[in-house]
Automatic annotation (TrEMBL):
<dbReference type="InterPro" id="IPR011990">
    <property type="entry name" value="TPR-like_helical_dom_sf"/>
</dbReference>
<dbReference type="InterPro" id="IPR001214">
    <property type="entry name" value="SET_dom"/>
</dbReference>
<protein>
    <recommendedName>
        <fullName>SET domain-containing protein</fullName>
    </recommendedName>
</protein>
<feature type="domain" description="SET">
    <location>
        <begin position="17"/>
        <end position="219"/>
    </location>
</feature>
<dbReference type="InterPro" id="IPR046341">
    <property type="entry name" value="SET_dom_sf"/>
</dbReference>
<dbReference type="Pfam" id="PF00856">
    <property type="entry name" value="SET"/>
</dbReference>
<dbReference type="InterPro" id="IPR053185">
    <property type="entry name" value="SET_domain_protein"/>
</dbReference>
């Protein structure tokens, strides 16, 4: 039985000849292709049903609920943003709310207090009455009703640019696969009722036949390349299901509990800024090169070095950081080349291209590999569809690097 929305919101880009929603005994709702798609084909574009803008510049905007109480809660920014999401849902009309009442993942008591989700849940429970007073939430909403909305928001929202979170009618109903057949991104914004609403574009990254389920990956960034067991743990923790996709059934990278524990501890320490880049490098130097943990630490080091969030001293650690980036490239390349549909499968290409760009950023201007690394990223992104804005950015970096290099030569 096909379900289509009653068009009380702007879904003008969605063509019902391309996709439809169906019921499924385990996954509840699923999104299906209504025709064949080739890799790179546009499947659908849709405007979000609702979105919140999290930018501080908009504090005075009536439509965005910023509260002194929420801002002063002792929680991390992501937890605060999740509460804004839940409270925002409570402010919607019932018809809009009905449209986005997707299935939610975990029972809320599963989240640990130190995670952003756990902090959002705890803060909402403890401060509900103050928050309710401050934000004039309707009396119809009890604390448990708002917590239900938080669960819906947490399971189904997506970031649309750094300062915008949104829920979609179709996109939010797509289920997970560790090797998804679609890729999605925000391709613009529109204004509805004075609100900025993002537009999401979904493209095929594999050959899709009419009747196939359309899937996306719920894994964040590099977690896509974590071993099966870790991916499954993440999905069970956040989305409350056991992944049985083809990749989970075929890949078999065994990770010992000790390694897993060490990794989780490191993640926790990094998250809480309890470990320095130097500590990480020392820890890594004691691991064998074949350890999965060794590779994962290289990923963490690259991320830290790229954001410099831990006061990383680039000069002192340069060689080690570059070696970490190269190690990540070697591993991603291996996965990329093993993938039967590479290089058309954007799923693998994105990560490899990003890593080449990161390596280019890390390399000093005097190193000829810097520009080559950017060129490699361009080559891969050119194969992917719809990455032109990132290619422009890389071309700018190459021009910049060439300019600085030639200026240096002149001054010599
Ligand atoms: C974003 S929603 C997806 C839409 C959802 N199926 C619905 O009916 O609203 C995420 C939830 O869908 C279910 N789900 C997603 N992918 C799944 C999968 N591969 N296997 C089983 N359940 C899945 C889980 O319950 C998860 O918490």
């Amino acid at each position: 039985m096909k379900n289509q929305p009653n068009h009380t919101f702007n879904s003008r880009f969605v063509d019902s000849h391309c996709i439809s929603i169906h019921s499924h005994p385990i996954k509840n709702k699923i999104l299906r292709a209504e025709k064949d798609f080739e890799p790179g084909d546009l499947i659908f574009q849709e405007t979000a049903v609702t979105a919140i803008k999290l930018s501080n510049n908009n504090k005075n905007d009536e439509s965005i609920i910023f509260s002194t109480i929420i801002e002063s809660l002792p929680i991390v920014p992501l937890a605060r943003n999740l509460i804004y999401g839940a409270v925002h849902l409570a402010s919607l009309s019932s018809s809009k709310l009905d449209l986005i009442k997707c299935q939610f993942g975990n029972p809320l008591d599963k989240y640990l207090n130190f995670t952003p989700e756990g902090q959002a849940i705890a803060a909402l429970k403890y401060y509900f009455f103050e928050i309710k007073k401050e934000l004039s939430i309707s009396d119809l909403f009890s604390c448990s009703a708002i917590l239900d909305l938080l669960a819906i928001w947490m399971t189904n929202y997506s970031t649309a640019g750094p300062q915008c979170h949104a829920l979609y009618y179709y996109w939010s109903r797509m289920n997970h696969d560790c090797k998804p057949n679609t890729h999605h991104r925000t391709t613009g914004y529109t204004t509805v009722d004075n609100q900025t609403i993002p537009i999401r574009t979904v493209q095929a990254i594999q050959k899709i036949n009419k009747g196939d389920e359309l899937t996306k990956s719920y894994l964040v960034g590099e977690t896509n390349f974590q071993p099966t067991q870790m991916r499954k743990d993440y999905l069970s923790m956040h989305y409350h299901f056991t992944c049985t996709c083809s990749r989970c059934s075929t890949e078999n990278e065994i990770i010992s509990d000790t390694l897993m524990y060490q990794y989780k501890t490191l993640e926790y320490q990094i998250y809480n800024k309890q470990i320095s880049l130097n500590d990480l490098l020392i820890f890594k130097s004691k691991l064998s090169w074949t350890d999965w943990l060794n590779y994962s630490i290289s990923q963490l080091i690259c991320t830290i070095a790229a954001s410099s969030s831990m006061g990383c001293d680039n000069t002192r650690y340069h060689t080690a950081i570059i070696e970490c980036a190269l190690q990540c490239i070697r591993r991603l390349k291996k996965i990329y080349l093993q993938s039967f549909d590479a290089p058309t499968n954007e799923y693998y290409s994105i990560f490899l291209a990003d890593k080449y760009e990161q390596l280019g950023d890390f390399l000093p201007l005097s190193d000829s590999q810097k520009i080559n690394s950017y060129k490699e990223a361009i080559k891969i992104r050119k194969i992917c569809q719809g990455k032109s804005e990132k290619i422009d950015n890389l071309n700018d970096k190459i021009i910049q690097a060439k300019k600085v290099t030639s200026n240096n030569q002149i001054s010599l």
